[in-house]
From TrEMBL:
It comes from the Bacteria. The keyword Transmembrane helix applies. Keywords: Membrane, Transmembrane, Transmembrane helix. The chain crosses the membrane at residues 32-52, 64-84. This is DUF2752 domain-containing protein. It comes from Jejudonia soesokkakensis. Pfam families: DUF2752 (PF10825). The lineage of its organism: Bacteria, Pseudomonadati, Bacteroidota, Flavobacteriia, Flavobacteriales.
Length: 99
């Protein structure tokens, strides 16, 4: 996306951040994509719940994953993050992935 539009997308730096997380370099991963790093606990919890339901043949659901306010709120935060990380002003340019 960066080469086409000149803007950082919300996912820019995610692959490099995951690489840093696998090497237990949490601060480096956070500098590359803080939104993804902060979203990982929610994603891992949802994935773990799916695995638990599959293994134990249950239908346990967490209520907030199925509410529209959670889905729209998460999408809204992603859009706000997308806009803020492309602003050329301090402290917003710190959200852009570092090289």
């Amino acid at each position: 996306m960066r080469t086409i539009t000149g803007f950082h997308c919300p996912g820019c730096g995610s692959q490099r951040a995951l690489h840093q997380l696998f090497h237990l370099k949490f601060l480096s991963a956070f500098r590359l994509n803080p939104f993804m790093v902060l979203s990982l606990p929610i994603i891992l919890y949802a994935l773990g719940l799916r695995v638990y339901n599959y293994v134990n043949e249950t239908q346990y659901r967490v209520w907030f994953f199925y509410n529209s306010w959670f889905i729209y709120g998460y999408f809204g935060i992603a859009v706000i993050y997308w806009v803020l990380r492309n602003l050329p002003y301090y402290p917003f340019y710190l959200l852009a992935p570092t090289e």
